[in-house]
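Recall from the previous chapter that SMILES is a line notation for molecules. Here it describes pyridoxal-5'-phosphate.
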Amino acid sequence: MSKDKIGLNTICTHVGEVPDKQFKGAVSPMYMSTSYAFEDVDVKRYPRYFNTPNQEGLSKKIAALEHAEAALIFGSGMAAISHALMAFLQAGDHVIFQQTLYGGTYNFATTQLEKYGISYSFAEGWGAEDIEREIKPNTKVIYIETPSNPLLTITDMTAVAELAKKNKLLTMIDNTFASPVNQNPADFGIDVIIHSATKYMGGHSDICAGAVAASQAYIDAIWESSICFGGSLSDQTVWLLERSLKTMGLRVTAQNNNAQKMAEFLEGHEDIDAVYYPGLRSHKDHILAKSQMHGFGGMLSFELKPSLDASQFMKSLQLIKPSMSLAGVESTMLSPVLTSHALMSKEDREKQGIRDGLIRFSVGIEEVKDLKGDIEQALAHVKTKSVLV
Ligand SMILES: *Cc1c(COP(=O)(O)O)cnc(C)c1O
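With both inputs in hand, we obtain:
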């Protein structure tokens, strides 16, 4: 059966299975060998070469999910991001990053690139025109993230891909927040698609991994430098990630549905000042999101009324966990001001629209009525507290 003809959940369940020829088991056997015979074989297999049986199988699944020719799997999302960037950049080159980036990527850009003689700019805004203003004669790569963290701002992938083609630049996207279920950037002409598989691909908050999907030629280029940097993933975790991906379509669809309902609930709530979710008509990029996403995702943010204490609210939650990470089947919340964006000045944060009462909500697969109930009881708790003081 052609990979192009089969649907998402079939890809999730079957593509890239390693057949168990010996016992005919239902799932891929786990091959833990770091050493394979080199006589009479044409592939020199070795984990750091990204080509053990389990690594190869899982790469096929991820490539199929992203409508790409090939993929590689890494030890973390940051390994995927740094290996992909370093494969294409060299001393004297310039890279343009979108305005808001995942904190680890921001940290990589600002602390590592200059050591290698690579310069960078951050676009002042999310549009292709904001990126275009930063293009220099030595620019090589445009790097975007959509939806972005924490306000779920959407970047127009078609416009960015066209701009890049016109200027002969390579485009990379961090597609973690959307997951391949909700967004396939290859269909819009983006060249290199990166995931922190720690998030929706893993989905159970128990795996740290990363992935890159692209054309065979780009993957070959990334492979060549990545075998030197050495960021491969252990076969045990590769196997677990294959298992997790089987249910990704189901999980993420449930998270999309729950997030839409929670966003609508919060938007209509008297104690909530603002809700940011691309699935809401009130979101500034709703129409753009609709044009390039299959679903609006499981991430949203909201602001409490200024009279309510956000950190007290988070402490009063009983079901929803306060957590740095995201995308698991369990709902989590965090305050970007106290965590992911704590190192940024208040002025810089406010310039990007990140106010002190902002809360980022990673919506899980629990029953919506239980999530609403938890938020209601936490709000009631915060309100009685503020009356007492
Ligand atoms: C978590 C995350 C990363 C980094 O992934 P790790 O697996 O933690 O290295 C990169 N981008 C986004 C959007 C993320 O959420």
